[in-house]
Amino acid sequence: MGKKTIKYANSLEAEFVNSLRGRVKSYFEDHRISRFGNGNMVAKTIFMFMLFFLPYFSMVTGLVTSPWLIALCWVFMGFGTAGIGLSVMHDANHRSYSSNQRVNKILSYSMSMLGGFHVNWQYQHNILHHSFTNIDGHDEDIDAGDLLRFSPHQEHKKFHRYQHIYAWFLYGLMTISWTITKDFKQLAGYLKEGVRLNGKNKTQIITELILSKVIYYTYMLVIPILFVPIAWWMIVLFYVVMHFIAGFSLAVIFQTAHVMPTSAFPEPAEDGSIENHWAIHQLMTTTNYAPNNRVLSWLIGALNYQVEHHLFPAICHVHYRKISPIVKETAREFNLPYFEQPNFPKAIHEHYKMLKTLGRG
Questions:
Q1: Which pLDDT belongs to residue 82?
Q2: What is the pLDDT of residue 1?
Q3: 31 with 60: CB under 8 angstroms?
Q4: DSSP-assigned beta bridge partners for residue 341
Q5: Cβ(309)–Cβ(302) below 8 Å
Q6: Mean pLDDT by 10 residues, the chain (361 residues)
Q7: Cα-flanking dihedrals φ and ψ of residue 37, to 5°?
Q8: DSSP 3-state assignment of 295?
Q9: Closest residue by Cα to residue 312 from 336, 333, 283
Q10: In contact, 81 and 175? CB cutoff 8 Å
Q11: What's the CA gap between 152 and 54, in Å, rounded?
Q12: Are the CB atoms for 220 and 112 separated by under 8 Å?
């Protein structure tokens, strides 16, 4: 059976949506600032790329030769991978990094530079996740196959009772799965469904994917194996460690925003209709955390403000902290939920509890 066409009840709560959008628009107009990135965004971009490439070039140019320091370089590159993904690639693929769409397009390729495929990401994240958040069968962010159960509407298996224990290890494999199999399987699925990606035909997209993987493996594995003065198997091991750090970081940041005890997992009616407006749906399925931790927020692309991001994905993340009070006050004014955890450890604990609840069936 094919997927239902999801239809939101756009007539409901229209006053809330209009009020919220009007107030956020007024914030930018009153302060005479752009909704796109600023100097802070540029500085962060430089920092994150340096966090990734300085260790890389230190190794391949022979500046660093100690196995322990080389291992440390790969650790830094793991955090750099996550940092670029969260703070640069994410905004660029939402076209909110810059008002210049050429800049957004160039920086969107950083996804492929990190081992993923930006074309897949744009469809899976921008379209499927943001349009159908927490709707089983439509939001691929809650579809982890049989190993993990992220929705009460997914089939329960006996081993899910232990998912609150083993999920954390699987999170660390997320980005390395992109580089090996996921992008190919994902693209094959999209092409089979007849999805038109970036206005390109099937041959162009497949060629672009293969070329991106060849370039990635050349500079990430072949060049280090040839030029870094340690055994090849150590390079492969450190490469896996780098991806484990990146994958784990990305997974816990995103999953603590949607797979939570407070999160709704709406089921469409037979005709595909959802009872709420799209914006209300985002409030019901999304959770913020650590609103007062400005260091964490800076490092993770302000994705601790997931509510603001889901309501306004076309606004650069450097503005989320300032528009957050507007969103919170407007939601409360209309008696709508605004979920928020006080800190990151509390958010992780709540996610752990949700994994355990879903694992029981």
A1: 97
A2: 39
A3: no
A4: 289
A5: yes
A6: 72 80 97 96 97 97 96 98 96 96 95 93 94 94 94 96 97 94 94 84 92 96 96 97 97 96 94 88 97 96 97 97 97 95 98 97 83
A7: -65, 165
A8: helix
A9: 283
A10: yes
A11: 44
A12: no
Angle at 155 between CA 149 and CA 157, to 5 degrees: 75
Model's pTM, two decimal places? 0.93
Structure token pair of residue 297: 């927020």
3-class SS at 279? helix
Structural domain boundaries in the chain? 7-360
CA 338, CA 328: separation in Å to the nearest integer?
A: 6
d(CA 63, CA 56) in angstroms, rounded, equals 10
The residue whose two tokens read 């993904």 is 85
If you ran DSSP here, which 8-state letter would residue 156 be given?
P
Structure tokens at 267: 């089921």
Picking from 266, 290, 23, 295, the residue whose alpha carbon sits closest to that of residue 142 is 266
Here the tokens at position 246 are: 């990146």
